[in-house]
Amino acid sequence: QVQLVESGGGLVQPGGSLRLSCAASGFTLDNYGIGWFRQAPGKEREGVSSISGSSSDTYYADSVKGRFTISRDKAKNMVYLQMNSLRPEDTGVYSCAATSAKGSALYILTIMSGMGADYWGEGTLVTVSS
Description:
Radius of gyration: 13 Å
Shape: globular
Number of strands: 11
Largest sheet: 7 strands, mixed
Structural class: mainly beta
C-alpha cells in the first residue's frame, strides 16, 4: 500500500522541541519533493517547509525560519522536521506531502499547496501549551 505516515507529534511546552517524521511505504522518497504543512484550528492549511527532490534546496516559511529544519534520510526512506523553540502559534495538525514535480523547494511547496501533491499523509497533532 502506497502511503505517507507522520509521527512525532504531541504536547510540548513553549520553548520546547519536537521532531516530526514522514515515512513512506510502498514507494521510495528518492527524487520526490517533500513538503510539510500545518493547519491550526479554524485556519487554512499553510506550507511550513519543503525539500527538493535532489535535497539540494530547502524552503522555510518566515514564521518558522531559524527554528525548524527539514532533512531527508534516504537509507530510512524518511523525511524529518526538527522543530525548536516552539511557540503556541505553532500548534496544529502537521502533514507531509510528496510530489514528483521538479523544481526549487519553494516551487514544489507552492504546487503542493494546490493540487500538485502525489501523496498526502493523515497528519500528526502538535500542541504547544503550558
